[in-house]
């Protein structure tokens, strides 16, 4: 039997021994070869005399995800097809070979190669026409809220050219239609074939594979995210129920603030399995930390920083420095503890810093790109470890509350919560974040 080796297998090999051993009939994807060139990983024939003595890749100690609708625990993902209609590598070892060290811990949280995001790359692809989950119709991503975050997310999604349709929905229908038309005009500039529509309701948008909810009020200077709760809970609750009716098999990605509470609210309102309701904040918070620490002397490029932001999207954000590296070197060996602490604080407060500078509205470029990145990771089954707000399932000693945890996503949403070793104080801070979010949920108005 032949095995398909993907870019994430190369990442795992880079973390272990800088050599990827493949069998004579195995297929190494072009992206994996490109990734190997980037990382200096040798692709060697496993049948040669110097056969590796290292253990084969192992399946992670997944705690699985709870599928409430079915009452079962599942980490399955759905096979998909590429945009060109051929079979996707969803059964490839990309899904089975995490970058774990022999202790079963995550060795690297490095984002995948930019090669994974290059248009026209043969593997993995997008969703083919006719693969739309709801009706066998067009593959479709619906972005609810054609405001600042929504339009950036839609732009990235259209530009990626991996779905038939991106539909913007806004109660201000003219805005949705105008932004959509403006975006459609960029098709020759960005060279995409995705159609872009703008409508006033999720019902008009039609059944979707993925729904990104950015609708709601942003905060203004002097406000906390929590100040948005009653206004936005009413919007998100209503939208989640209507999305569930229109797109019963969609994966929902919530962006609206306060993020952790709104994601849990969308889950209960939609009555979807928790694996299909995710929140976007960790990708953004991680990017902010990477970007800001890269401004420090000696750190290098932001993408060479391997780190993850967990916990809440706010005061209880946890950035485990015990796991953070730059080009493979532990960050505390590169940057002084005082500077590290200052950068963590700045990353934690970055949303507020941007609000203060803009004076009206909040950040949207990095947030919109981060939301699109989550959707693209699912469509492309990139298999990267990223932070997302998910329903804690007992991992890290936390249960039944949405908060930022390291995850792998698949076509159908959450594939698994990844357990990474944390220092005792980091674990305590993560658990505290769960408790604080639970308290805020308890205080949330019930009628939304
Ligand atoms: N999770 C994160 O990391 C993150 C990052 C940035 C912003 N946000 C949040 O995202 C939300 C949107 O931010 P923004 O800057 O895009 O705001 P915005 O005001 O620019 O856009 C919001 C849009 O939602 C629309 N809208 C309101 N109610 C609606 C409804 N019921 N149906 C459809 N559309 C509706 C509005 O007409 C508006 O166009 C805010 O709550 C903000 O706090 C979260
Ligand atoms: O800070 C905000 O209110 C918006 C968003 O959550 C952000 O972090 O930029």
Automatic annotation (TrEMBL):
- Molecular-function annotations in GO: L-malate dehydrogenase (NAD+) activity
Q: Where is the composition biased (Low complexity)?
A: 61-93
Query: One Pfam family, short name please?
Result: Ldh_1_N
Lineage of producing organism: Bacteria, Bacillati, Actinomycetota, Actinomycetes, Pseudonocardiales
Please report which protein family the annotation says this sequence is part of: Belongs to the LDH/MDH superfamily. LDH family.
Annotated keywords: NAD, Oxidoreductase
InterPro entries recorded for this chain? L-lactate/malate_DH, Lactate/malate_DH_C, Lactate/malate_DH_N, Lactate_DH/Glyco_Ohase_4_C, NAD(P)-bd_dom_sf
Question: Where in this chain does the record put each Lactate/malate dehydrogenase N-terminal domain?
Answer: 140-279
Region feature Disordered, mapped onto this chain: 39-123
Q: What is this protein called?
A: Malate dehydrogenase
